[in-house]
Amino acid sequence: MSLSIIISKARDKVCLSKDEIDEFSAGLANGLVSDAQAAAFAMAVCLNGLSKEERVFLTLAMRDTGNVKKWKVSGPVIDKHSTGGIGDNVSLVLAPLLAACGAYVPMISGRGLGHTGGTLDKLESIPGYRTEVENQEFERIVAEVGCAIVGAGEGIAPADKRLYAIRDLTGTVESVDLITSSILSKKLAAGLDSLVLDVKVGSGSFMTDMAKARELAQSLVSVANGAGCKTTALLTDMNESLANAAGNALEVKSALKLLKNKKGQDRLLEVVLSLGANLLVTSGVASDNASGRKALQQSLANGKAVEVWGGMIHALGGPHDFIDRAANYLEEAAEVVEFVSPIAGYVAKVDGRILGQTIIEMGGGRKKAGEALDFSVGLDQFARIGQKVEKGDPLLRIHASSKEGIDRAKTLLSQAFEFSTDPVELHDLIVETVN
Description:
Blueprint: H1 3-11, H2 18-30, H3 35-48, H4 52-63, E1 78-82, H5 90-100, E2 105-109, H6 119-123, H7 135-145, E3 147-151, H8 158-170, H9 176-188, E4 194-201, H10 210-226, E5 230-237, E6 245-246, H11 248-259, H12 266-282, H13 289-301, H14 304-315, H15 322-329, E7 335-340, E8 345-350, H16 352-361, E9 378-380, E10 388-389, E11 394-400, H17 403-413, E12 417-420, E13 430-434
Parallel strand pairs: 1-4, 2-3, 4-5
Antiparallel strand pairs: 5-13, 6-9, 7-11, 8-10, 8-12, 9-11
């Protein structure tokens, strides 16, 4: 069929068949679809949308332009995906926790995007850790250790890689249809039995509007289930940092603290347990959420989860004794300074985007692709929304590589906090579940 006919049908809101979407996706991967044709298709979809059936067709078609893994392991193959936020180091904790419960977790992750940090950047703050491995080694580590967190290989959904680059240049990134197919074509290429989605909502996320976040969650869940992968989504609050640290090495320390079952990370722990219990139920490892949470908590308490994490780090090139000697391996910032409250009152609002931008300005995130990162910089010890502070009390600590970095951070952070004279109503951490 002529590619122009396919584009015309998308333009005119005429439903595309599976064969038409398969043909267009194959053309994206093999180059027969030009950049102009890809841009026209993306714009037509952005303006007119796709039916649920078309979303499923597009997701599977783009998935099938590359490698799709088939696992020979003794338990379910499961994963989670987050839409991204500040201090979101859930993946670092959840992958080994699930593996400790008998599941297998082939986690394909990404780098920092916009004001949010990337899981691969966090892991690369561990000396020697390799985020790029050959498929055979990746599969071996997952089978032997139970989990591996790496970047997408060259053979994963090449049609999506091509279309995503076009969307980034044509103002069509925000299309829920195309976001859905982009996320799921890569996730489903991992050969998953079950998936849970963590859709962030709030100032520190990409989705600040509840209605749009719900729309995306519903789209992802319906398409993933339509493609044969048991999937649910949780909408979670991202109006402040999730972990009590934001920044690459600091978030690794935060994850290790939780994996060692140490107290003080209640928000992070609750999201980890909620997502993990959900996955254990949909994959058949647990009969209900209560038993799923209990299994995860036991894996923290008995040390099995942190042992799995240490094995994964070593298998992917990191130090064999990282769990016991992390402080000797992770970079520490030259300057650590408290940022204090200008007034007394209750912390009412925190602008998560400013927190993220502050880390970028200190060198902990990229302003353009390929930039080297300063893994040591970041923010930690956050005062939480609803917390009462006096004038001069610390709101957070700044970790920077220079006094100039401290000064830049303070300038940005002066706009990040709002205060109230009255107690503040708190947001629910787990806002909603979408099945």
